Structure formats: C-alpha cells, structure tokens
Amino acid sequence: MSRPLPDARSRWLTLLVSALVTSVLTGCPEEKVLCTSGLDVCGSECADLQGDPFNCGGCGVRCGEGETCQAGACECRTGAPACGEACLDLSSDARNCGACGNACPADQVCSAGTCAEACPPGSERCNGGCAVLASDPLNCGACGTVCPDVQSCHAGRCMYDVVAACYTNGQLVGIQAGTDRMGPRRQFGSGVQSLAAWDGVVLAADAARSVLSQALAGALGAVVEEDSLGAVAASPNDILVDPPYVYVLDSVNNTLQVLKREGPAQGGGLGLRTVGQVNLGANTSPQVIAKRGDTFYIPLFGTAGSDFRQGNAVARVNVSDPERPRLVDSIPLTGLDLKSFDGGTTMALPYAAVATDAGVYVALTNLNPANDYLPNGPGMLARIDPADGGVRAIDLGAQDCLNAGDVQAVGEHLVVSCLGEARFDTAGGYQAKDVRATGLVLVKDDRPVASYALSPGCAGGPEQGCDLAVGGRLAVVGNAVYVTDVNAGRVFVVEVRDGKFVERRGNSTPEAKGAALDACPVDPRRVVSNAIDIVAVP
C-alpha cells in the first residue's frame, strides 16, 4: 500500500530540521570581512599593511624589536640605528655605545652614548653624573628637577626640612636644615597650636576653628584637606603620627582623638577619617603623647579649678587596638622630692614627655600655683620605668633651668627646653620684661652635662632694646636642635657635639653662623610673637 504524500506543513518542518542538523554538523558559513579603503583583510581583521608592525607589507609579517613599519617595510625607529640586522639604542646599549660595536668595559655603563662608571645602587645617571633621585635637590624625583633654594629633597619631593608655626601671626614658615635659610611666611589659619608632618604633608591643629588642616610641605600656604576636631572649644595641644593613624590630644576637652588615613585624598591630602576617641577624665588637661610599644604616656597637667587633683600624673593608654584606645591607669608624680626653694608649695605639673629605650622621661615645670605660677623649684625630669611604673626625679639645676617645658632625644642624649622664670608686662601686650634660667639643658645617663642660655646679658629687657627670649618647643634634625621663642618669635639653632652645645644661630657667639632666625616677626599691635610649635619634616 502506498504512503500518502506529506502536506505543506510537514514538508516545511522536514526542511527546518534538516537545516538545523546541517548547521550543527558543518558550522555556519563564515561572514565575509569588509575593510575600508586603504586596509586589507588579514584573517578576520583589517590591517594597514603600510604601517602595521604586525602586518608590514603583508599579512603576518612582524617587525623586529626597535623597528617600525614605514611604507610597508620594517625600518629602525628614530634614534635606534641598525647594527647588523638589529636596531639598537646607541645612547644606552653598553655593547654598542655611541656607535655599532663600541662596547663599554665590564665595570661601566652606557649613558648618553658615552661609556661611564656605573652608579652605586639606589642612584641613577643624570646629566653625566650619578644622582639619588630620592634626596638630590638638583635631581629630585627625576633628572633635572631642581628644588627651590630653601628646600631639600625628601623621598623624591621638594620640601622644607623644618616648619614653625606663628600663633599670633597665623602663619607657617619653612626652614632649610644646614643652611638655616627661611622660605616666605605663608598665612595659614588663625590659631595654629600644634604641628606634625607625614608623607609630604604638614598637619596643623587650629584651636580657633577646631580643625586639623593639611598643607603640602613644599607649599604651606594652601589648605589641601581639613578634618573636624569635634568640640568647638578645642585646645589641640599635640599631634602624633603613627601610620596609618594620627592622634590628636585636646587639653581642654581631655580627649585623645584617633584619625585613620584612607586616602589618597583629592588635592594631595592624606584622606583622614576619625575612627576612635577616648576621654582621659575631667580636669586632667593632657599635654603631649609619648609612645613606647603599644602604650601612650600622656602627662596630665591638671586644672586650677580642681586644685590640680586630677593632674600631676602621667596617664597610660593602651593602643594595641588603635581604633579603640583604652585608658589603663595613671602614674602619680606627687611623691617626688621637687626640691622646693622655700620648703613650701610646689607641684610637678608635667608638660612634655619622650620615650627612649631607657624609659619615659617627663618634663616637670615645678611651679607654685599659689604664687602666679612662678617656679618654686628647679626644672626637673621624671624618669618612669615602664616595667613597674616606678618614678625617680632628675634635678636639672635651678641656675640653668626653671620651668622645664619640652624634652627630645638627640642620639644618646636628652635635650630639655626650659621656659625659665619670666615676668610679663600684662598692661603692655603681655611682653616679657625679664626672664631668667631659660634655655637648654643636655642630659646623659640621667644627669645634666651641659647648658645653653637663650638670653644671656639681656637683663635690661625691652627697655634696653633687648628682645628677651622665652624657650618653647623643640625639633631635632640630625644633631641640630631647633628651639622656638614664645616671646619674640625667633628660632634658635644649637648643635649637640661631643657632649656639649654649640650655637649655630642664636646669640652670635664666635662659633655661631649668625643671629637667631626671625621666624615670626613681632606684630607691633601685639608686641609679643609666639612661635608656638616647630616640627622636623621626615
């Protein structure tokens, strides 16, 4: 019996299935490549056979190293002539230096087509010589990049070595170490109280506006980032950089604020964000931060309103978890023999601290709050043993030091800044009218070994045409100590050499290079100029 003929729908389904099977078994036919005018088909792409180094003059013809495709032929690049069949850079090829076949000796390199001695590791050849691009002021970061006259090269960037803050003038000024030359003063905020530096940026805590401002260490005048310090009535007395964190201590609100770098920020700032805070207690008035291991040592000055009961101590704060600082305890300083001049009232009133391998050293002002806060004993250091918290006092000598205000390490020595006993003309702009025992004391093995007076032979004071100096904070660059003057706005520079002080810029002794730096000129309207802080730029 014969099969019936398929209808039209059945024939269409049969053809569709047949086409699909054929497509799976054989693949779809390739699409034809169409190229624009001037290009040729090479496989599945279009190529310029006149200029394509991978298809030069024909598909798949590749030019060699140092060659380009010109008019369909492989030729040496400009500046890389042919030596045999190879194209070489004769300016740097040690086997063909300046000319084909001119090989440099094994201990030399080819620079600008001339054989020259190889540069030491870490340096590069620049302009016929060797240069460390990280520190060479004539080739800072790149060959031929010259730093301005009063700046140095730090990690390949031109910056000042030291920066001072002028509180009364609202300015920052940069100083070049070694030459002690100053850059132009830059207006910056209105109440900068403390400074720090990190990764090419100067951090300036502004008490007037309660912000932490940032400026590039080679510019200073322009704010590149600002971060809030929280409380409106802030007194940011100290800044500590401990990457990736920055700690700010507020002596009015009694807080330690933690900021973390999450940059880079737009404009060159660090990109800081507040991530933690700890309160050190009411009426403690914390002053500075000294870090030893995972512990901060923070001198607590105390407040007159609480009779200094919460002061005269050193707080210990654990920062093993930096974003959650924890107050551990306080080490009292009330049991020390402060060597009172009259056997009467005197208090430690700690003002600064530094951590060393030997222990933590705290500068004691040793004042009598009941007598206009005048010294009632010699300037002193308290040495804290981190192992057991034990404390012993170091007498710095009343003749050379009253009112110890700052302490920094210089090699195996400690340098203490003594604010001295200053009496001020409160009716005439709070200018110092006389001061004694202000200067520096050098300490080694827990005993004073040398001293330097900031205002010798200046007893006549301003009435005799003498601008009295009152010592302030310190910055250290190598063996040089930069000391601020909180009365006349100057910066003194003194070196530590062979266990002695040698004046570099100050009272113009025979060894000195000149007078103290006029960092913060006295504003006639204010009479006094407070060079409030100073920082060495790493």
From TrEMBL:
Domain of life the protein comes from: Bacteria
Keywords tagged on the record: Signal
InterPro entries with a match to the protein in the record: Stig-like
SUPFAM superfamilies from the UniProt entry: YWTD domain
Signal peptide: none
Coiled coil: none
Protein name as catalogued: 4Fe-4S ferredoxin
